[in-house]
Amino acid sequence: MAAVAVEEPEPCGSFRRYLARLGALRPQPGAERPDGDRRTELHLLFDQLISESCGPAPADVCALLAQACQLVHLDQEHLVSKVCQLIHHLLNRFQVMVDEQNLNFLLSYCISALKQCSSWTHVEILQALAALVYNNGPKCQKYLPDLLGKTGLLLQFSDSAQPDVELRRAAVRSMANLCLSVPGQPYLDESYRSVCFQTFLSVLQSSKTSDVDDITFCMLLQNALKGIQSLLNGGKMKLMQTDQIGSLLAVLKKCMFHGLPGLSIEMPTALYPAPLPQYDKRSPVKQEQSEPATFKQPGNRRKKSKGKQKKGEFGEEGKEGLGDAGNESVLGADMLKLHLGDVQNSPCSDPRTRDHLSSHYTSWKRISSSESEYSDAEGGIQSKMRSYQANVRQGALACFLSAIKSIEKRVLYGYWSAFVPDAPGIGSPQSVSLMTIALKDPSPKTRACALQVLSAILEGSKQFLSVAEDANDHKRAFTPFSVTIASSIRELHRCLLLALVAESSSQTLTQIVKCLANLVSNVPYSRLKPGLLTRVWNQIKPYICHKDVNVRVSSLTLLGAIVSVQAPLPEVQLLLQQPSSSGLNNSGSATPHRFNSSEQWRKALPSEGEPPDNPAGCTSSEPCWLLRLCVSIIVLPREDSYSDSDANFPSFSSVYEPCPLRLESLQVLALLVKGYFPMAQSYFLELGEVACRCMEEMDPSIQLHGAKLLEELGTGVLQQYKPDSAVAPDQRVPVSVVTFWTMMLNGPLPGTLQNSPHATLQTSACDALSSILPEAFSSLQNDQQILCVTLLLGLNHSENPLVKAAAARALGVYILFSCLRQDVMFVADTANAILNSLHDKSPNVRAKAAWSLGNLTDTLIINMETMGQSFQEEFSDLLLLKMLRSATEASKDRDKVKSNAVRALGNVLHFLQPYHIANPRFREAIEESLQALISTVQSEATMKVRWNACYALGNVFKNPALPLGEAPWTTQAYSALSSVVKSCKNFKVRIKSAMALSIPSKRECYGSTEQFCQIWSALVIALQKSEDTEDFLEFKYSASLRTQICQALLHLLSLARSTDLPVIWETITENGDAIKSYVLQYLKSGVEENEAGMHTDSYERERVLKGAIEHLGGIEKHVTVWKTNAFSFFVCFIKTASSLSFI
């Protein structure tokens, strides 16, 4: 034993011995070159180092390589070649990063060797160079002119005229390694990036010549693709020019299909944006060979070829053509059974059905095997070549994925037809696309890459796809673009569902389902003929019980996408109402047991009374099957083990389903409640119990999604009880929902709110607590109400900005509750808490606090109107002044804070009483706040901010205690509103300014005759410009704008003095016809709701008009004789308009 211990070498010991031997070979003083023996010794030593397997210390490797290069002169080319092989081998094998000092020496050595040594050594030198510059690009800046300059070595060796392909490949690889980015380090200059990009592009555009073997050419393409990907990722390269984008996409599409069996396409040098597929030339011979094969055959061929793959791994593409059918074929058979069973609606438990499916699969597999190109175990060169070709396809797809992030989506969608399938025309073959790879490529990893790229294209495509429309049969001489996109969407659905059935690799299957979920999330199904979602729904059901957990999770994600897209959709409502036996009983032996046992969840949970017999939107007596499925996954113990992938999720592995599966089920439940609440409300208390159970668990992620489910349940009830809700009172959740909230407050919710280590969980619990129905809150016991308020006031002082923002928002909700808003102490406590948050350093906290401050000041106005002076006298003057100053300061903040700060200012200024205004402490604050409102109206802030500022000034005008018409700020306020009503691009802002101008109830409030006439003239100009807009979206508000302006004009007429009439008469004579037509249109229009939500009917308009006529009649006697004719004509005009409108 002792002898063995002595013989064990120390780590790095052998390398240090080599280092010592190299030191001994240094030339002695007086000897210029090593003799032949020393040269032989160096060869032997280098060979021993290349075969060394002991892991050395990085410093030893760097020192050894530097010393080796010092010993080898550049005229000893065999030794130069050997030492470069050593550099390449040691750096790659032991993953050594060379320090900067040694890197400089070694790079100088390699560059000098390239310049001085013979061409036969250049490949080994370039390999060494590639290893040295790998992840060292920022340290190589001073060598870039020699490598990438106009006459740079790498440019020379990578030139298309270079006859030696191996040399060209080594140069391209070195260039690609130089393009790798290092986090926190400077990247290549733009000039070098451009040179590299053009070099890589020319390599990809080149064609293979007959004297180049396939594997070498594949490696050349791979290196070029990696280089472009590095430029796109590390260099944050943005592709802007059309020719640059088109050239890159053309070569990527070409490489995506490189070596794909049965397919050969010819691509131009560039693609161009086009609505239809372009440049789809296929080789005639190849096309004839590939046409007889159906889409199913490639899928089944794959099943046979991948029998020896390990679970959880893609495997090497070089081995995919080998092996027997194995387990993957069995999985393929299962998938086929599920698909066919679903289509035929026949349960697999029927023996006859099983026999039929089995015989069908046997014949299907037999046909596939006989036609398979890769069924023999040929190995060798062919297998290796297929592996390298697959690597090229994967590299092209990975590069495409990076390119998608570098191209603006609106530009990328111009090339939609080049990569996304479209329904083939009659007699023409289908264009090649990403789905061609997903359906036909023999490599599962390549198929998965193609699906990832397609998902990236689909992500964020909602606006582009929103033009799709085929709900109506189009009978035109041309095909509209909307129909073309709709056709592409349908083909995508068809191909993805086909790939779903044909796929055998669990990892690729997961990508297919994720791609489907991305597609579903972005498609405008309401504009398409129904049926697409039904096919997806029925096809995905069996995969909910797939043996691989990742497939099950992605299947639930897809179901969540279906129930959330444009909810509620009639097609999805029908799908949710299907009995659980529809499509699910043919999904394998595990399913019936799970769904039978899932009946337990309703029996196990407490319920209050029976659910309504016929809840809105639910016609089936049994629960919605998706709801049952999700609840059973969340709360029931697991019955069967599904796959080895469960081992990746150890949490609750012995009791419950894997955590990701339960989380996804909770998210689907939340989406179901959000989009189809009438269907879920029958199980309101039961779902509350599910949320309760989840929040009681130890896993914070389960608790978090339980709280989110609780929030959606509360929000669903709130929506039903809104004043404008379309849900009939007898179809709503009963107000006895107090039982639900009592269960929550006596359960885990208070503890969750105080769970400080998990801020996101606290935030979600705050949001859930703010979703309580006001009527339910008022019915809670007093101690529970106090508990809610105390928790929120406490959380408002949290150090975490997410929690603090959620608490501030929740307080803004509670302040509107009728049972709380009349409590002066609660209002004061809430005001202090909100003002504290309004000064927080987090913009999000300040934005939420400003919104809550706006709600708080709304409450002040409501209390002033309902409770009178009693509330105003009890409310602290000091706190009111603090609110005024804080809101003024907040009005200078960013727009998200400012929009609600100005709303609060308007309310507080409306709330002020005469003794406040007379108080010297208030005077300066009032002046500052008014100036803040006026400047905000005139500013270039967002339209919502200016809209609220105009609304706030209107509130200010409602306070009779303010010196409106006398104070200097009055002129400024009217001038700002008059300017906005004439010229603002946003019509909603104009409407609010016109509304504010019509609020003062006395003529004195409008100030001098000159000011009154300026307002009148501004409104007349605004009326004439009410249809002038550059933005078509604003045009829909033009009718509301005219209505509001006409109301303001009639209001001014009803207050006008005799001294105001000359200007009014002048505008009537100049623009009489236009004004008359707009006034008549206003008087004749029916009931409509203006932007303030106020209904104005014909009787109200008639009352306002009669008031104006009576007022004008009253001042007629004061009009001088020389004005009588003009005034009579004016009154006649108004009366004529009145008589015409009420005939």
Automatic annotation (TrEMBL):
<feature type="compositionally biased region" description="Basic residues">
    <location>
        <begin position="299"/>
        <end position="309"/>
    </location>
</feature>
<dbReference type="Pfam" id="PF13251">
    <property type="entry name" value="DUF4042"/>
</dbReference>
<dbReference type="Pfam" id="PF13646">
    <property type="entry name" value="HEAT_2"/>
</dbReference>
<dbReference type="InterPro" id="IPR016024">
    <property type="entry name" value="ARM-type_fold"/>
</dbReference>
<dbReference type="InterPro" id="IPR011989">
    <property type="entry name" value="ARM-like"/>
</dbReference>
<protein>
    <recommendedName>
        <fullName>HEAT repeat-containing protein 6</fullName>
    </recommendedName>
</protein>
<feature type="domain" description="DUF4042">
    <location>
        <begin position="392"/>
        <end position="572"/>
    </location>
</feature>
<feature type="compositionally biased region" description="Basic and acidic residues">
    <location>
        <begin position="279"/>
        <end position="289"/>
    </location>
</feature>
<dbReference type="InterPro" id="IPR052107">
    <property type="entry name" value="HEAT6"/>
</dbReference>
<feature type="region of interest" description="Disordered">
    <location>
        <begin position="278"/>
        <end position="326"/>
    </location>
</feature>
<feature type="compositionally biased region" description="Basic and acidic residues">
    <location>
        <begin position="310"/>
        <end position="322"/>
    </location>
</feature>
<dbReference type="InterPro" id="IPR025283">
    <property type="entry name" value="DUF4042"/>
</dbReference>
